Amino acid sequence: MDLLAVVYSLAIFYHILLRLMTIIMVVIFYQIEY
Which controlled-vocabulary keywords does the entry list (predicted)? Predict the structure, then answer.
């Protein structure tokens, strides 16, 4: 297993996780607002 491939996959996973967390926070915020 190449180290660069591991770093890239971790970066992609972290990016997707961050995007999901942002969407969840926005949904929760709108649920509280209305």
Answer: Membrane, Transmembrane, Transmembrane helix
